């Protein structure tokens, strides 16, 4: 697993040209200091066009990911997150493996107070699969809105 950056002077991706990593394992997640340590607030990232590959057929799988976290000392640097998520484009793994791996990698790199991910996968074989992971219950006293992704309804 790539090591997280410990300060903003060590960022290698922000403000520089960077290609898509060949795999999630090769992707570098960078972090920056939380500008409000000790203040509990929710950070949300939405990736409505996430893609990976079915590990058996090689066919593309598509998902709308929503990641919410309450930071501790660190925030994920958004360009590195974008490249990390993009590295799944040619990665073969089941929906459950992708969704939970993303959450665990963010937890490992950031040590957030709390994190959840909703993986809203589009149908393959006629069945949509939604994957949800959280490090625990939503902490009291922090506004964490609904993820706002409706259940799959097809054409209406």
Automatic annotation (TrEMBL):
Location of the protein in the cell: Cytoplasm
Catalyzed reactions per annotation: 7-aminomethyl-7-carbaguanine + 2 NADP(+) = 7-cyano-7-carbaguanine + 2 NADPH + 3 H(+)
One of the record's GO cellular component terms: cytoplasm
One of the GO BP terms on file: tRNA queuosine(34) biosynthetic process
Pfam family, one: QueF
PANTHER family tied to this protein: NADPH-DEPENDENT 7-CYANO-7-DEAZAGUANINE REDUCTASE
InterPro entries registered for this protein in UniProt: GTP-CH-I_C/QueF, NADPH_dep_7-cyano-7-deazaG_red, QueF, QueF_type1
Compositionally biased residues, Low complexity: 1-15
Active site: 54, 61
Leader sequence segment: none
The gene coding this protein: queF
Positions of substrate binding: 76-78, 95-96
Keywords: Cytoplasm, NADP, Oxidoreductase, Queuosine biosynthesis
Protein name: NADPH-dependent 7-cyano-7-deazaguanine reductase
Family: Belongs to the GTP cyclohydrolase I family. QueF type 1 subfamily.
Keyword hit for Iron-sulfur: no
Region of interest (Disordered), ranges: 1-33
EC number: 1.7.1.13
Entry GO MF terms: preQ1 synthase activity
Role this protein plays: Catalyzes the NADPH-dependent reduction of 7-cyano-7-deazaguanine (preQ0) to 7-aminomethyl-7-deazaguanine (preQ1).
Pathway(s) where this gene product acts: tRNA modification; tRNA-queuosine biosynthesis
């Amino acid at each position: 697993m790539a090591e997280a950056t410990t300060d903003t002077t060590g960022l290698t991706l922000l403000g520089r040209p960077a290609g898509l990593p060949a795999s999630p394992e090769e992707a570098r997640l960078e972090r920056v200091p939380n500008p409000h340590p000790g203040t509990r607030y929710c950070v949300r990232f939405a990736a409505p066009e996430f893609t990976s590959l079915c590990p058996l057929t090689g066919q593309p799988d598509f998902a709308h990911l929503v990641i919410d976290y309450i930071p501790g000392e660190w925030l994920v640097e958004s360009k590195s997150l974008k490249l990390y998520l993009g590295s799944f484009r040619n990665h073969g793994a089941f929906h459950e493996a992708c969704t939970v791996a993303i959450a665990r990698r963010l937890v490992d790199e950031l040590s957030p107070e709390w994190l959840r991910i909703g993986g809203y996968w589009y149908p393959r074989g006629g069945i949509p699969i939604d994957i949800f992971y959280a490090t625990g219950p939503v902490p009291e006293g922090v506004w964490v809105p609904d993820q706002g992704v409706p259940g799959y309804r097809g054409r209406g």
